[in-house]
Specification:
The protein is an alpha/beta fold. It is built from eleven helices and 19 strands. Helices cover 27% and strands 25% of the residues.
């Protein structure tokens, strides 16, 4: 069914335009983008949001999800504006992680889950800032295990100080997997070696890493000042204080990748005893943060409304920047000839409607 959409502001993934008409053909391809005069259907149209760190949502836990569970999860995320996402699994024994990966890969191959674009493996090859990851399962990089990762893995988080990490980064890059650095307190030399080997991102800036100090800089400082590195950032209002979010965007405007780091809060207590929602986020009994319960769309709203970030910059950090990091050329931008992957927002950037690309 063909579609015509008009909007007062149109963000194409890079540039914020004025009133625009978007025409979509019967096959789901965008056939024209043109200036528009007159009343508009929506205040803002943007590419759908791309979440590269999403452990679960509501009652679905990615690591334990069936294909039907992931279909349910996909619908819930779509309603919140995330049209594309990487299912994230975290530190556990390697055999358990292998089972999760095998199951998720079969779900990915089923093509039943339109928004499921691949997997983010966060752990177990982490370092000296484990956060909520169980320390007993953090291990040296297992090169054999890495060499057998399922093809749907698109992003892996490792720590620069971990044993065998440089060889692991080389192996991951050879497999066209994006490498992010996180849960880490590396030396400057360890950081530089990891970046030289091919790491291009840090996982949830400020959280689970050495920080910003005028005499004792750490991973957060180096990432913010390194044009080679993009910075994942959880803007749920709990993980990072608004002034720190504003600082991050000022220092690395075109390198910030907003992520939700959401978890399945309705089943979290059952799957991990001792985890409960307190003060706006899931926490361990010692108050360690264990993910968020905030969708990516609310993170976008927050950085604009509370942190002084421009609409264009905020939208870019949730669309084209994460799409590029995950090597997803068909999402994150709105272009003639591309499948329609659109999000209508109101003037406060709340989600009104989403149109997701047709299955390939």
């Amino acid at each position: 069914m063909s579609l015509e959409i008009t909007c007062q502001q149109f963000f194409d993934g890079t540039v914020l335009h004025g009133p625009t008409r978007i025409n979509v053909a019967d096959d789901g391809l965008i056939v024209s983008l043109s200036d528009h005069a007159g009343d508009c259907d929506f205040p803002v149209v943007s590419p759908g949001f791309v979440d590269v760190q999403m452990n679960g949502f509501d009652n679905v836990h990615v690591a334990k999800a069936t294909t039907n569970d992931l279909v349910e999860l996909d619908r819930a995320l779509l309603a919140k504006g995330s049209t594309t996402w990487l299912g994230t699994i975290v530190t556990a024994p390697l055999d358990k992680m292998s089972l999760s990966l095998a199951s998720l890969h079969q779900s990915f191959l089923s093509k039943r889950i339109q928004g499921f674009a691949g997997i983010h493996v966060e752990g177990p090859f982490l370092g000296a800032a484990p956060g909520a990851h169980p320390v007993k399962h953090i291990i040296a990089c297992d090169l054999d295990w890495i060499s057998r990762l399922v093809p749907s893995v698109r992003l892996v988080t490792v720590a620069p100080e971990q044993e065998n990490v440089i060889a692991a980064i080389h192996e991951l890059r050879a497999r066209n997997v994006t490498v992010s650095l996180g849960h880490s307190r590396p030396t400057k030399n360890q950081y530089e070696e990891a970046v030289a080997a091919g790491a291009t991102m840090v996982t949830h800036l400020f959280n689970g890493m050495s920080g910003v100090h005028h005499r004792d800089p750490g991973l957060a400082m180096w990432a913010l000042t390194d044009d080679r590195i993009s910075c994942g950032l959880i803007a749920d209002g709990v993980h990072v204080q608004p002034d720190a979010i504003a600082l991050a965007f000022r220092a690395a405007k075109s390198r910030i990748c907003l992520v939700s780091d959401s978890v399945s809060w309705r089943t979290q207590s059952g799957s991990r005893p001792g985890v409960e929602i307190r003060d706006g986020a899931p926490r361990l009994s010692d108050d360690t943060l264990a993910g968020s319960c905030t969708p990516l769309s609310e993170c976008v709203q927050r950085v604009v409304q509370e942190c002084g970030v421009s609409i264009a910059t905020a939208l870019e950090s949730a669309t084209s920047i994460p799409a590029d990091l995950a090597r997803l050329p068909d999402v994150g931008r709105i272009r003639v000839g591309q499948k329609a992957d659109l999000l209508a927002l109101d003037s406060e950037l709340s989600v009104l409607k989403a149109w997701r690309r047709l299955p390939s």
